[in-house]
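Supplementary Methods S3. Input chains for the assembly prediction are listed below.
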Amino acid sequence: MHKRGYSRLLDKVPPSGIRKFFDLVMGQKGIISLGVGEPDFMTPWVIRERAIQVLEKGMTSYSANQGIPELCESIRKYVANRFNCQYDPKTEMIITNGVSEGMDIVLRALLNPGDDVLIPEPSYVCYSPLTVLTGANVVSVPTHNSDFVLDATVLEASITKQSKVLILSSPSNPTGRIIPKEQLEEIAKVVEKYDLWVISDEIYAELSFDDDYVSFASLPGMKDRTLLMNGFSKAWAMTGWRLGYVCGPSDVISRALKIHQYSALCAPTISQFAGVVALDETAVEVEQMVQSYKERRNFMVKRFSDIGLWLPHPDGAFYCFPSIKSTGLTAEDFALGLLQEYNVAVVPGTAFGQGGEGHIRCCYATSMKQLEEALDKMSKFVKKVRK
Amino acid sequence: MKLEKQILDLLKKDSRLSHREISVRLGANESEISSLVKRLEEDGVIARYSIIINEDKYEGGNEKVRALIEVQVKPEGGLGFENVAKRVSQFSNVVDHYLLSGTYDFLIVVEGDHIQEVSSFVSGKLSSIDNIKGTVTHFILKKYKVNGAILDPSDSSSRLLVSP
Ligand SMILES: Cc1ncc(COP(=O)(O)O)c(C=O)c1O
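Predicted structure tokens for the full assembly:
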């Protein structure tokens, strides 16, 4: 302990619930893990092949801060075709080190100490800590009374004078839920009424199994208020490449770019070149991966219904978020018991905020064989604790 | 994607899946899957359920020898290649048989217990068929990928067991 101390803001950030569970799991052998947060596919070969070529040619320098123009152009086309949102690749876009960095620089570009950020809970783990680090306050918006889909009236009830930013995440990590179009439109009205910014984390957009995906930025009037976040980690199985992007109004983008140029300089150049191939040439591979997740999703829905655990319908991503309330255990005790007695790892819902109590996150991006075994074991565990 | 196509894609990867397992994964009901599979079988769309053997790992059996053979054929008036094709396909040594565009006409895959069996098949049986003008034989030395399956995937993933 140094006598001058450390960042006070950082001390406000609680230790990670994921980290805690990770340490527990690492101590045990022969685990079947439904606790991962990434695909079980390898990056499609054509993308890897391009990276190898780029390395062979020695194209390993920094790129422009904003990103290489080829990738900006591919992103422009992709976002326009896929989500019906038009962005100027020169002034309305930054290529980032994943959505993680994008979230950080956008929050820092928008917020002042004392501002409020509305975060629907349970939420992905980085939103709240990155908000706290700007000096702004987190206002959690509960979603458990509306099957984990943000409800516009609940949102409105959470608004304060200081409310400035709303973070949307759909499909959601940890719940797998997607906010349907009608509900997005209701949310847009609240956003308009209270003059909010929206950060829309759409990293799982491709993994939408039942309906066509609607981007929040594509709703009438919302493009000027929305920072659209997306990336390559999930649908292209590129988590280790650290590649994502932010699209949005140029006044915010230019400010976020100011941070990015000093704190990141640029996204990995090799990944950026490979990203062009990902967007331009891998529609078939992505479709196959999506189909495979969908099959596993269907399997999970069936098995949880057989086990008798209520499951909010997992519309997308590769997570499901069953309720374990009927067992009488807390999320953490359930996850611990399952780990210790049956060697199956899941993440307690409370790792994603208090709104996740009574639920566990199960990631089904793992082989069918492992899923079958894990669910057989979970079924036994549930029977045992219910007795 | 059409349900039939989805069923075929699943069975291509694992032909041992039960109709029940297929129905769960595709979110359809089991009887619908059963009747579709039955029809695909009856229509001959599903010609056979088979397995892929990685011979490098199979010590017990006597390893078979395989060769790819390019065959040049003189097409017959009115019949084209069909007559010759019928005769070639009949041999039990012939495992696969294709008509190709390009510098030769048939590509056939021939299997035998040893090199001599394949050579004598080519010189004795194949070359003596009328209208077969010439053959080039390539013995297969090693298989890396068969029907979409990489036989010895060496890369392995090293995912963290728990991550955000
Ligand atoms: C909802 C959500 N947003 C962002 C991320 C981080 O993605 P990236 O790898 O692009 O930083 C994740 C990763 O788990 C996620 O689940």
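The mean pLDDT of chain A is 96. The first strand of chain A starts at residue 32 and ends at 33.
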